[in-house]
Every structure is written in C-alpha cells, then in structure tokens.
C-alpha cells in the first residue's frame, strides 16, 4: 500500500487483489501479443530476404510459399499455411519500421547481414505511425486485418481509429465490415460520426486478447481451454456432452470447440459428435441468450462447411442442433442442411433427442448450474 495510514478494510483488500490481477493480466496479454507480432514480422523478413538473396530461390519460383508451408507444417509450426506466409511477408513490407522496436535479443534473429539500423524498405506514407504504438497497442490480429486492406489511406484510418478507441479485434472487424472509412468520407460531419462510432465501440481487454486464436495456438493452448463464452456456458456444455453420450442412441464424441477455417475467418463449433447409426456429423451450438437469426445462420454455415469438407464416402448429410437459452425458457432449433426429403428428415428425428426432451434437459440443467453458484 502506498500509505500505511490509509484505510485498509475488507473492501480495500478485494479491490487491491482485483487491481493486481487485472494489471498483471494486461501486462501478460501485451507481452504475448508483442511476441506474436514480432514472430510474424520476422517470418516475413526472412521470406523477403530469401526472395532477394536466397542461393537456390530460382528452384522454387512461384511455388516458394506453398513448399515452405508444406515443410513448416511437417515441423508443426503453427499458422504457417501459404496464405498466412503471404500475409507475414506483406506485413513486413508494409511495416518495415518495426525493425526499430526490436529488443537486443530479437535483433540477433534478423537475417544475416540485416541490422536494426539498416533501412529495410519504406513504409506506406500514411502509415508513419510510431512503430512502438503499432506494436504496443495493436495485437497481431488487429494488424492482420489492417494489412489485408488494399489502400494506404484506409489502412492509416483504421489504424489511428483503432488505437484511439482501443478497439477489440471484433470491433475493428465490425467497423471495416460496416464501411466506416467510406461512410466517414461521405459524411459532412466527420467528428460527430467518429464520436458516435467510438462511444459504442467494444474495447480491447486482456481476456479478449488471450482468446485470440493466434495467441492460443502460439502458446500451445487447446481451444477449449480458452474459448468458452462464460462459466455458465462452460458448465452447460459439460452436462450437455454427458447427456448426449448417455442417450445411447449412437452419439460418439469427436471434438469440443472444434476450430474450422472458413475463408479468412475462424469459427468454433461448441460440440461435434459422429452418429454411428445415422452415419453423419452432429454439430451442437449453445448460446446463453435468446434465439437470433444470426445464431441459426452461424450454425448453418458450420453445417455447410462440414458438408463440403468433412463428409466421407458413405456419410449422410451433417446436421446441427442450436440451443438458445434464457432464464425462463429454452429454444431448440435443428439445422438440417437444407434437406427437403421428409422421410430422410424423419429418420433423423427418430434417432435424435426430441426438441421437448432437449428443452426440459436444458432448463433443468440451468437451474442446477445456477444453484451451484
């Protein structure tokens, strides 16, 4: 405590521990994100150096990144597919000024012949934001979204607004998707628009940072260890998993928080089973909130992805079960992958738990979980 004469009661004890926890969690989150940013920037630096001076670079030509991704995959180096390697190279080329932020330890990792004082290209004119700010205030996931943009001014705009508002990754993605840059250009009162956007923006927190898929892969953490939405959801998923397995109707557990890559975005399926009688995947999504069409759309996207990428010869179409819950009721929706054959649908309904059964289970378990708190 700063002053021994300060009042130190139980409330102050709780507040002090909470403050220490939050401050150190924030420091840990920043340290991990900075390491990940530096790792990806250095990967880009090595690829650029190889393209420039690699002795056998002509042997690979346009196939360099594909072959590099294949070799790194064998070594279990995370997030180094061809698309990601291209992004790291682009990140390095767009933000060469980051070289000046390298610690003495990291400078030793620079490609041979390159030093921290060496000019390694020219940053985009509009991106002359102090490199320390880029590294300290934006995670790599922020930077990747910005690097993917196709215009220097647009990149600078979102970088500045993101730093100014301390946006979460999700918020940055939402603002890019809502064309904030374009809307700002058309607005006659840009300051008012900026105030409205910033006032409603979701800010970055240590918990949001540590949930970043890049971060937990970088640290070797399993998705299920960090991706549950809440303690209530986590407890319900535990019970739901046991419930479906105990039905004895052919459910075989396959994965929890199954990570799938759809385009440039990652999705996480809460529970994945394979049904040995129906010979299909069953995807279960639990939302501790009321039903929304967005939730059903998300589940249908996952079901469609499984249909295209995971069906083996002889498999039936995958299906999804969406559980949406509130304190006073539960809603169960089935996503049947667009099936219009009534006999086929009936076959599924005979082998799966009924909607009423699922609703009664969910309501009972919610009361049970609430009672344990």
What is the rounded distance between the termini? 32 Å
By secondary-structure content and strand pairing, the structural class works out as: alpha+beta
Q: How many structurally independent domains?
A: 2
Number of helices: 16
| Mean pLDDT level | 80
Largest sheet: 5 strands, mixed
Query: Percent range for helical residues?
Result: 40-55%
Which strand order do you get reading across the main beta sheet? Answer: 1-2-3-4-5
Uncertain stretches of 5 or more adjacent residues: 117-123
- Topology order in helix (H) and strand (E) letters: HHHHHHHHHHHHHEEEHEEHH
Amount of beta strand: 5-15%
Structure summary, number of beta strands: 5
Spatial shape? globular
C-alpha-based Rg, rounded: 25 Å
Question: Could you explain the architecture of this structure?
Answer:
The protein has 373 residues and is of the alpha+beta class. It folds into two domains: 206 residues, no CATH class; 151 residues, Trna Endonuclease, Chain: A, domain 1, CATH 3.40.1350. Helices cover 54% and strands 12% of the residues. It is built from 16 helices and five strands. A five-stranded mixed sheet has the order 1-2-3-4-5, with helices on both faces. The longest helix is centred in the N-terminal third of the chain and has 44 residues.
What brief labels describe this structure?
Trna Endonuclease, Chain: A, domain 1, 54% helix, alpha+beta, 2 domains, 373 residues, globular, 5-stranded mixed sheet
């Amino acid at each position: 405590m700063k002053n021994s004469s300060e009042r130190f009661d139980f409330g102050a004890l709780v507040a002090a521990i909470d403050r220490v926890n939050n401050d150190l969690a924030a420091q840990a989150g920043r340290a991990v994100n900075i390491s990940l940013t530096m790792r990806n920037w250095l990967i880009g630096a090595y690829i650029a150096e190889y393209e420039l001076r690699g002795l056998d670079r002509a042997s690979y030509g346009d196939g360099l990144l594909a072959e590099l991704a294949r070799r790194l995959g064998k070594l279990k180096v995370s997030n180094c597919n061809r698309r990601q390697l291209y992004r790291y190279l682009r990140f390095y080329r767009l933000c060469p000024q980051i070289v000046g932020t390298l610690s003495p330890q990291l400078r030793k990792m620079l490609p041979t012949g390159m030093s921290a004082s060496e000019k390694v290209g020219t940053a985009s004119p509009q991106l002359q934001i102090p490199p320390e700010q880029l590294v300290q205030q934006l995670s790599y996931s922020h930077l990747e979204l910005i690097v993917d943009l196709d215009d220097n001014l647009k990149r600078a705009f979102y970088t500045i607004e993101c730093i100014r508002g301390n946006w979460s990754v999700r918020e940055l993605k939402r603002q890019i998707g809502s064309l904030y840059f374009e809307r700002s250009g058309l607005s006659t009162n840009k300051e008012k628009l900026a105030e409205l956007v910033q006032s409603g923006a979701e800010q970055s927190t240590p918990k949001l940072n540590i949930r970043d898929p890049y971060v937990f892969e970088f640290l070797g953490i399993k998705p299920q260890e960090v991706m549950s939405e809440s303690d209530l959801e986590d407890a319900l998923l535990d019970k739901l998993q046991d419930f479906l397995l105990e039905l004895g109707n052919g459910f075989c557990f396959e994965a929890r928080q199954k990570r799938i890559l759809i385009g440039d975005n990652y999705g996480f399926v809460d529970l994945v089973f394979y049904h040995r009688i129906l010979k299909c995947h069953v995807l279960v999504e639990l939302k501790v909130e009321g039903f929304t069409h967005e939730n059903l759309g998300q589940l249908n996207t996952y079901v469609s992805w499984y249909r295209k990428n995971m069906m083996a010869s002889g498999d039936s179409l995958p299906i999804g079960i969406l559980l949406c819950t509130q304190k006073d009721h539960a809603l169960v929706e089935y996503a049947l992958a667009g099936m219009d054959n009534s006999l086929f649908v009936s076959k599924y309904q005979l082998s799966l738990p009924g909607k009423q059964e699922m609703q009664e289970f969910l309501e009972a378990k919610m009361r049970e979980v609430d009672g344990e708190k």
